[in-house]
Amino acid sequence: MELNIRAGARILYKNGNSGWLIGTVQKTESAEVNEKGVWIPVQPINNEEEIHFAEINNIFTDCTLIEDWMRPGLLTKKEYIDIIQSDNFEKNLEHAWVSDGEYAYYYVSKYTENWIMKQPFDYILRGA
Fold first, then answer.
1. The most confident of 16-25, 49-58, 108-117, by mean pLDDT
2. Do 89 and 70 reside in the same domain of the chain?
3. CA nearest 15: which of 48, 50, 63?
4. 103 belongs to a structural domain
5. How many Å apart are CA 53 and CA 82, to the nearest integer?
6. Residues 122, 72: one domain?
7. Half-sphere exposure of residue 74, counting CA atoms within 13 Å on the CB side?
């Protein structure tokens, strides 16, 4: 997997024992390298005063900005669960991503209510 790490990039990261958090990579003179790994400065979304350092193996850089033309496919988790539980749902034809409403992050890999509800974000983006 190729990492797209650059200042201003939107990423998911883990901070300690947290689940996935959303942040942006911050511009600094250099990343921190120590015996535990390579650490990237990250500013959490909705918290401009705090900077976290995320270990490079605990970040996820593959996300896509949801553009206006994609918004009709943006559903709440409850709406999506109703679709996957319907009689005409065809999982072999389905393409969907977990989303925070602004960005799409990773593929829906299991089409079950339990899996969907465990995801850390509130939306699912269905693709064509």
1. 108-117
2. yes
3. 50
4. yes
5. 39
6. yes
7. 17
In the block, residue with structure tokens 């949801």: 66
- Output the pTM of the full model: 0.80
Residue 118 Rama label (left phi>0; alpha psi -120 to 50; beta)? alpha
Q: Give the residue numbers spanning the domain of 45.
A: 10-60
Instruction: Kindly state whether residues 72 and 24 are assigned to the same domain.
Output: no
Q: Which contacts qualify for 82-85: CB closer than 8 Å, 24 or more apart?
A: 83/126, 84/111, 84/112, 84/113, 84/116, 85/113
Residue 11's Cβ-count burial label (10 Å; 0-12, 13-18, 19+) is buried
Encoding tokens for residue 46?
């909705």
Asked if 45 contacts 72 with a C-beta cutoff of 8 angstroms, the reply is no
Report the number of distinct structural domains present in the chain: 2
92-104 residue pLDDT tens: 999 999 999 999 9
**What is the per-residue pLDDT across 28-68, written as a single tens digit (0 to 9) for each?**
767 788 898 899 999 999 887 888 999 998 898 889 999 99
